[in-house]
């Protein structure tokens, strides 16, 4: 059986890679996808600890995280489409003025 | 060993995919790498004994969410957008440095055993009380002076009661009265599930505490435990007489349960026919004490534990007869499966689930509102359109050209009134 630490380390690495994607990429859609990767890494740690503790609450949390992520993606991508329509760009450096 | 190799393989694939997702210039390629990561994580969920979440991960993440991403990327033509170098050039080395620092910190923490890997705190003990003393009427059950069950009938049991761990003075009273029949001290450890059985043919019943295994059973099966409280014979056995009650194919299911003891639990498939099962005197198959012939009471249900209590019932002629009652209890649902998830979602997590459902609804409406494009019509265009669409009445045009008011008798009302009459006349003809 693979230990919980191994899963935690893997989820940590994936989380870091997601965070670097958020910091380094300039494409808003890619930033968004990196956020999804971070959520997935957190899910992996939750499920690993759920097995460690023998409690199914971790699974429930992952279920809710997935549901909320679906809602978030729907709204976020709609925002990106709306921004692209007005600014003709989804480069986050050009969106820092916060104007319509 | 294979599991470790599998974990390493899937882990390496997911990390490499994450790096490729970060580095690839094309957003579509990034999305495809992210799908690969999602599938890898679903695989890890399977290895972590969470099959339901693995399926949800595949369908919701890899299916719905990533398709939405790809759709938006292709809709906007954003494959190559945002790849030029940023004005904040210093952010790249800082981000890499901080990431490595975090990895080292967390790695050292895990290496030193700072991750709390202790076992889960076990649940509070649950207890039920079964009344199998034929000489005693209905009883009230008190634990430390507190009533936990009132007026328990003979051959019946209370529901499971959850109590904090500790020592209890378990007392039985004649129902509705203050005269104690018997009292005994029991210790309930955390995680205990079991039954306190009051039995015996004396006026003062014996009370024993027997634990019952309510952990998860293999699929499509149930668990059977027998408690022998029959004092007529030294020991009893549970046997299967087979289809035609032939002594040749009699099988012993549980052998030699001595008096006042609990058998080992056995796992029985749910389709097993118990009508040929019987409790017999140990070593003497001919002395049948009780047949489990009633399919209503003794049918094996899946994820269910049957606690068979064999008690003594004195007859009028002084002989002792074995009496058996099955107490049912659900075993805990299998960990990580859809059943366990459903049970938790509709009991403890009902409110959060409703809130999440509401959130999804709001998100749906929000997405529609955000992407809704109002018709862009400038004020001048609107005036021109208005002029084209709404024709001015002929009278006002004529009056503007001639300079006089033009009077036209209004015939609309008259014609509308005349029409039904005309139709009516035609019908008459």
Question: Biggest β-sheet of chain B: count, sense, barrel?
Answer: 5 strands, mixed
DSSP helix count of chain B? 10
Give a short account of the largest sheet of chain A.
none
- CATH class wording of chain A: Mainly Alpha
Features:
heterodimer; A: 100 residues; mainly alpha; Helix Hairpins; 3 helices; elongated; B: 429 residues; alpha+beta; Four Helix Bundle (Hemerythrin (Met), subunit A); Immunoglobulin-like; five-stranded mixed β-sheet; 10 helices; 18 strands; 38% helix; disordered C terminus
Description:
The complex is a heterodimer of chains A (100) and B (429). Chain A has 100 residues and is an all-alpha fold. Chain A has helices at 4-24, 28-53, 57-87. Chain A has one domain (4-95): Helix Hairpins (Orthogonal Bundle). Helices cover 78% and strands 0% of the residues of chain A. Chain B starts with a helix and ends with a helix. In chain B, helix 1 (2-23) runs antiparallel to helix 2 (27-47) and helix 2 runs antiparallel to helix 3 (51-76). The longest helix of chain B is centred in the N-terminal third of the chain and has 26 residues, at 51-76. The radius of gyration of chain B is 39 Å and the shape is elongated. Chain B is an alpha+beta fold and 429 residues long. Chain B has helices spanning 2-23, 27-47, 51-76, 91-111, 295-298, 338-346, 350-371, 379-389, 394-402, 412-428, and strands spanning 126-132, 139-143, 146-152, 156-157, 161-162, 166-174, 180-188, 193-199, 206-211, 221-229, 235-240, 251-258, 261-262, 266-269, 277-281, 284-291, 304-314, 320-330. Among the domains of chain B are: 2-81, Up-down Bundle (Four Helix Bundle (Hemerythrin (Met), subunit A)), CATH 1.20.120.1200; 123-211, Carboxypeptidase-like, regulatory domain (Immunoglobulin-like); 215-332, Sandwich (Immunoglobulin-like), CATH 2.60.40. At the A-B interface, helix 1, helix 2 and helix 3 of A face helix 1, helix 2, helix 3, helix 4 and helix 6 of B.
């Amino acid at each position: 059986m693979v230990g919980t630490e191994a899963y935690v380390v893997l989820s940590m690495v994936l989380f870091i890679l997601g965070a670097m994607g958020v910091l380094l990429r300039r494409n808003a859609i890619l930033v968004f996808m990196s956020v999804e990767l971070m959520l997935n890494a957190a899910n992996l740690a939750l499920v690993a600890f759920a097995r460690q503790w023998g409690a199914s609450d971790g699974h429930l949390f992952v279920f809710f995280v997935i549901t909320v992520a679906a809602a978030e993606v729907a709204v976020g991508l709609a925002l990106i489409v709306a921004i692209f329509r007005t600014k003709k760009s989804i480069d986050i450096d050009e969106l820092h003025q916060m104007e319509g | 060993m294979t599991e470790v190799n599998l974990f390493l393989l899937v882990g390496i694939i997911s990390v490499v995919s994450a790096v490729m997702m970060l580095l690839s210039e094309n957003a579509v390629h990034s999305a495809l790498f992210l799908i690969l990561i999602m599938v890898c994580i679903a695989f890890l969920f399977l290895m972590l004994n969470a099959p339901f979440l693995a399926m949800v991960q595949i369908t919701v993440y890899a299916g719905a969410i990533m398709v939405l991403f790809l759709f938006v990327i292709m809709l906007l033509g954003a494959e190559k957008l945002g790849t030029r170098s940023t004005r904040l050039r210093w952010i790249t080395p800082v981000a890499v440095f901080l990431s490595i620092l975090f990895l080292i910190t967390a790695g050292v923490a895990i290496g030193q055993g700072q991750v709390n890997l202790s076992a889960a705190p076990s649940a509070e003990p649950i207890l039920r009380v079964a009344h199998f003393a034929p000489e005693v009427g209905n009883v009230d059950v008190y634990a430390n002076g507190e009533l936990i069950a009132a007026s328990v009938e003979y051959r019946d049991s209370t529901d499971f009661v959850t109590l904090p761990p500790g020592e209890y003075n378990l007392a039985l009273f004649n129902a509705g009265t203050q005269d104690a029949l018997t009292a005994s001290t029991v210790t309930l450890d955390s995680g205990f599930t079991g039954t306190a059985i009051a039995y015996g043919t004396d006026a003062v019943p014996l009370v024993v505490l027997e634990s019952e295994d309510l952990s998860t059973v293999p699929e499509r099966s149930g668990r059977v435990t027998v408690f022998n409280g029959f004092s007529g014979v030294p020991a009893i056995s549970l046997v299967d007489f087979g289809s035609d009650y032939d002594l040749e194919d009699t099988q012993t299911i549980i052998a030699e349960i001595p008096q006042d003891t609990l058998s080992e639990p056995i796992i029985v498939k749910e389709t097993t026919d118990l009508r040929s099962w019987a409790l017999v005197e140990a070593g003497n198959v001919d002395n049948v004490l009780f047949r489990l012939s009633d399919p209503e009471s003794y049918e094996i249900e899946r994820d269910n534990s049957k606690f068979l209590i064999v008690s003594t019932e004195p007859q009028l002629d002084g002989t002792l007869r074995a009496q058996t009652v099955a107490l049912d209890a659900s075993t805990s649902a299998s960990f990580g499966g859809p059943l366990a998830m459903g049970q938790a979602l509709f009991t403890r997590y009902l409110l959060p689930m409703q809130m999440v459902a509401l959130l999804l609804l709001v998100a749906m409406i929000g997405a529609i509102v955000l992407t809704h494009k109002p018709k862009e019509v400038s004020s001048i265009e609107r005036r021109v359109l208005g002029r084209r669409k709404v024709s001015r009445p002929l009278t006002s045009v004529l009056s503007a050209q001639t300079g006089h008011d033009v009077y036209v008798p209004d015939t609309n009302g008259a014609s509308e009134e005349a029409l039904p009459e005309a139709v009516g006349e035609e019908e008459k003809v």
